[in-house]
Amino acid sequence: xxxxxxxxxxxxxxxxxxxxxxxxxxxxxxxxxxxxxxxxxxxxxxxxxxxxxxxxxxxxxxxxxxxxxxxxxxxxxxxxxxxxxxxxxxxxxxxxxxxxxxxxxxxxxxxxxxxxxxxxxxxxxxxxxxxxxxxxxxxxxxxxxxxxxxxxxxxxxxxxxxxxxxxxxxxxxxxxxxxxxxxxxxxxxxxxxxxxxxxxxxxxxxxxxxxxxxxxxxxxxxxxxxxxxxxxxxxxxxxxxxxxxxxxxxxxxxxxxxxxxxxxxxxxxxxxxxxxxxxxxxxxxxxxxxxxxxxxxxxxxxxxxxxxxxxxxxxxxxxxxxxxxxxxxxxxxxxxxx
Length: 338
Ligand SMILES: NC(=O)c1ccc[n+]([C@@H]2O[C@H](COP(=O)([O-])OP(=O)(O)OC[C@H]3O[C@@H](n4cnc5c(N)ncnc54)[C@H](O)[C@@H]3O)[C@@H](O)[C@H]2O)c1
Known about the structure:
alpha/beta, 11 helices, 13 strands, binds nicotinamide-adenine-dinucleotide
């Protein structure tokens, strides 16, 4: 079966392409390389022995999307990763984010709505929950007003899909609400490639560890948590990638309970910033240069997933530990700087 993976050269997309190929799927990638590089194809081939079909294309080009689907009538499912993801940049450039994250989604759904049968997986995010009132966070927790245009694109994106599934009965979709993906493939052939200063904790840690950054700033240690730093649910990107394969198989085998379903994808365990730093120090065998600074406005204090629904309904569970994920991130960082 042929699966379209948009944004398949990116961090999560490339790991998912590997898992899809290893599960026996044929993959076509669309990516405009705005936040990735074509070299990722070599990394994928080094792991799986197969080079996926690659179409360099900007999904904001509606005609190109139409032409792609006319030329690829044999696509059984779409996993849609392509989006812009920097929260801070989204505040500065909201229209770029609304255009890139929503127009692309609409153009793809328009094509799928014309097919006899269509299966669609969407990259959503735990940002839809904001600061949830209860931990761990279940899928029933209310969606809170978004803190950023990026977060809003995920909320609106989910609504667009839900509304579409309501009227196009042949369209089946699943939104996966990721918690905090980290790490790299254990082979160190693919991993996260942040452009410029990393926005996320783990690449900042590994870049500091390798000497590319002077020190890591820890934003606040006076939060109401055990060690005072913020808590997140860090999930190994390979575990996350596998969740996509399982979700897709659920749709392909028509095991879904309704046309539109939502799942949290996390480990179910919260780790503080200091615990993540300790994990790095343990696996890298070196101390990290870090400094506690003031809180950063807008940071959620705690967010970790209740994964019972994904465990039970999808039959999927995250297997890797924080140390496993950190060790893979460190191996990758050393490889790309080496
Ligand atoms: N990484 C995270 O922490 C995280 C958390 C929650 C949700 N997500 C979502 O998961 C998805 C993948 O995230 P990622 O971390 O792999 O990001 P990424 O930036 O590494 O990958 C996205 C890919 O999409 C491509 N792309 C962007 N706009 C495009 C367009 N208009 N046309 C074609 N290709 C385009 C980029 O070049 C890139 O290769 C995104 O939708 C993101 O919002 C990510």
